[in-house]
Design a protein that fits this description.
By secondary structure, the chain is an alpha/beta fold. The protein is built from eleven helices and eight strands. The protein has an eight-stranded parallel β-sheet, sandwiched between helices. Helix 1 links the parallel strand 1 and strand 2.
């Protein structure tokens, strides 16, 4: 296994652009890569560009009719077929949409292949994590579902146990759907409660079906959940599941939209808690995954200057075994670049000034606490199906 992490990057991924009025501004990707370089992390990882995913790869998850519809919309955005979720408010069609979306998917698939071949132990594609895309439609700013494609490619290569952990504020519905009946894939999603947030799925009772019953685990967090509750929920569910499942590869999705500054959701998580979960995912990969194989993806995140670049730079640094200390000053060269691009003032440090703490589940729980109710609901629904105590 190579000692260097792999960062998947091609400048062309910034062409994933729904337009100037859309919240998913590709500047968040460009600024993240610039911050990675400002900290010199590009010198301690292998920066690699994989080819775009071809139709045979896309068909591992998506219907060919849908891929054809994306290709047509890519050539003629005004003629996009809305029956495939294209040309909508959430997913406007744009020229080159197929090519750019397939390129992002290709980075996640290429990373998965490198992990399986033993070329690296850790790989990051922060342009990926587009977890809402369905087999036959775009959804929630996502055209092709790169996490599901990476997992499907691992299964095609011979993997028998792949775990997917999603900590985006939105439910990882597309990935769950792709493997709903597949016991080889364990999907775990921690997200804001479907009562208050898109896509209105991810209830604890959603546990998979058929041979895959018990392979989906959903922790639906109450709006307003902050660092202590978010970390308590993560540590009360994820480590025990991974210890039992012993995946051959761990895939994690790190949408930064759990942050208290994010304009599209209602959790109150700090950058410091996001960093703590990233570090925990890294540790869990080494503790429970053969060879420490870990694919870390981006996802949502719409505070595109203040939050996303710092969060995902921490993710790259952790994967590279070169963590950036939270108190580190943000390089002035990056702050200058931010102002030149956006006319916004950039944050000055790699922290929100928080020191997140949480109480472990085995210390006891409060049945009247809404956070504890959410954790217990997830455990009661899924854990017994896996032979675990709720």
């Amino acid at each position: 296994m190579s000692g260097r992490a792999r960062l998947m990057w091609d400048d062309a991924v910034t062409g994933y652009d729904f337009g100037s009025s859309h919240p998913m501004d590709p500047v968040r990707l460009a600024l993240t890569m610039e911050l990675v370089r400002a900290f010199g992390l590009d010198r301690v990882v292998d920066v690699v560009a994989a080819p775009a995913a071809g139709d045979s790869t896309l068909r591992l998850v998506h219907h060919q009719a849908y891929v054809d519809a994306v290709r047509r919309a890519s050539r003629d955005p005004r003629g996009a077929d809305q029956s495939y979720g294209l040309g909508t408010v959430d997913d406007p069609a744009f020229a080159g949409m197929h090519e750019t979306s397939a390129l992002i998917a290709g980075q996640s698939v290429g990373a998965a292949e490198a992990l399986w071949r033993g070329e690296t132990a850790h790989a990051v594609n922060f342009a990926g994590g587009l977890h809402h895309a369905m087999p036959g439609s775009a959804s929630g700013f996502c055209v092709y579902n790169d996490p599901a494609l990476a997992i499907a490619r691992l299964l095609e290569l011979g993997a028998e146990r792949v775990a997917y952990v999603d900590v985006d504020v939105h439910h990882g519905d597309g990935v769950q759907t792709a493997f709903w009946e597949d016991p080889r894939v364990l999907t775990v999603s921690l997200h804001e409660h479907p009562r208050t947030l898109f896509p209105q799925t991810g209830w604890p009772e959603e546990t998979g079906a058929g041979a895959g019953e018990g392979s989906a685990v959903n922790v639906a967090l109450p709006a307003g959940t902050g660092d202590e509750g978010w970390l308590r929920a993560f540590h009360s569910v994820v480590p025990e599941l991974l210890a039992d499942f012993r995946p051959e590869v761990l895939v994690t999705q790190h949408g930064a939209d759990t942050h208290f500054e994010d304009p599209l959701a209602h959790l109150a998580v700090s950058l410091d808690a996001q960093r703590a979960v990233q570090a925990s995912c890294h540790d869990l990969a080494h503790d429970y995954v053969e060879g420490g194989r870990w694919l870390a993806l981006g996802g949502g995140g719409y505070a595109v200057v203040d939050v996303v670049p710092r969060s995902w730079t921490h993710l790259v640094a952790i994967a590279a075994h070169a963590p950036v200390e939270p108190e580190s000053a943000v390089p002035s060269s990056w702050r200058d670049a931010v102002y030149a691009r956006t006319r916004q003032l950039a944050p000055g440090r790699m922290t929100d000034g928080r020191t997140p703490e949480w109480q472990p589940w085995d210390a006891g729980y409060d049945p009247a606490d809404r956070l504890d109710q959410a954790v217990l609901a997830a455990r009661k629904a899924a854990f017994p199906l896996r032979g675990l105590l709720a």
